Amino acid sequence: MNHIVIGTRGSLLARWQAAFVARSLRSAHPDLVVEEKIIVTEGDRLSTGPLWNAGGKGLWVKEIEAALLAREIDLAVHSMKDVPGELSAGLALVAIPPRADVRDAVVSRLGQGLDGLPKSARIGTTSLRRACQLKAIRPDFEIEILRGNLDTRLRKVADGVVDAAILACAGLDRLEFAGRITERLPIERMLPAVGQGALAIEARSDDDRVRVLAQVLNDAGTALAVTAERAFLTRLGATCRTPVAGYATLADGHVTILGLVGRPDGSQLIADEISGKSSEAADLGVKLADALLARGAGAILAECG
């Protein structure tokens, strides 16, 4: 049967991601009919307040995963950073396309970078990870909850609701908002979320037809790096109430993983890195998590969880 239904959220960015996957599938399989189905998630319905008080990352994927399991769709497209460390039973990640820019961006109303923002500047974000690292850099910053889709958040910056926002470079680039970026923050200063910049292509684990079709989308290097990062996240067992960051890179057959756990107010950051053979990517993620736990990350996780 040459037909496949892709499930996605309805935001501009989610639609772009689903359309990218659809185009790639059609290009590789010219006879394939690809349909897109919009699914409203709990995260879409919650328009106010911090997401970490409402259930966290699963908010963006639960309804889409339920549609997969109910066979209403064949394939789901998510931002990888929104996918919990452990998938729902019966589901699998069947492809991870090449990664976009993993960095976070400063978008400021008057064009300043992070260091150029005035004292007590209001910085918009919905991410505890970003808030934690921002407060560690500039304790004077006032962190404001900035909800809404990407275009909504950009409008709030332009309207002066906040002085600046921290947003993912990948989303800004994909929607052609790169011109709004005033600074791309180096990862040494703002460590990304696990899976940031990558897409997650999810299907039923027993659906061999879809798995084979989706393999054309997979990038082995990105998949390996994300495997290390997600092993790190899963080992920590962190909830959405704990700032966690992780990023893996590959070079010459080796993988290097950077990891961070912090207090939400930025008063303590525990960070480390580990390197090893790329064939041991998942094990390295676990070892890095264990190293942070041994240095006190467990106490932070217990307090914040």
Please describe what this structure looks like.
The chain is an alpha/beta fold and 305 residues long. The protein has 9 helices and 13 strands. A 5-stranded mixed beta sheet has the order 2-1-3-10-4, sandwiched between helices. A 5-stranded mixed beta sheet has the order 7-6-8-5-9, with helices on both faces. α4 links the parallel β6 (122-125) and β7. The longest helix has 24 residues, at 281-304. The radius of gyration is 19 Å and the shape is globular. The mean pLDDT is 93.
- Radius of gyration, rounded? 19 Å
Low-confidence stretches: none
Distance between the termini: 46 Å
What would the principal axes of the Cα set say about the shape?
globular
Order of helices and strands: EHEHHEEEEHEHEHEEHHEEEH
State the helical fraction: 25-40%
The beta-strand count equals 13
Major sheet = 5 strands, mixed
* Secondary-structure content class: alpha/beta
How are the strands of the largest sheet arranged? 2-1-3-10-4
Strand content: 15-25%
**pLDDT averaged over residues:** 93
Distinct helical segment count: 9
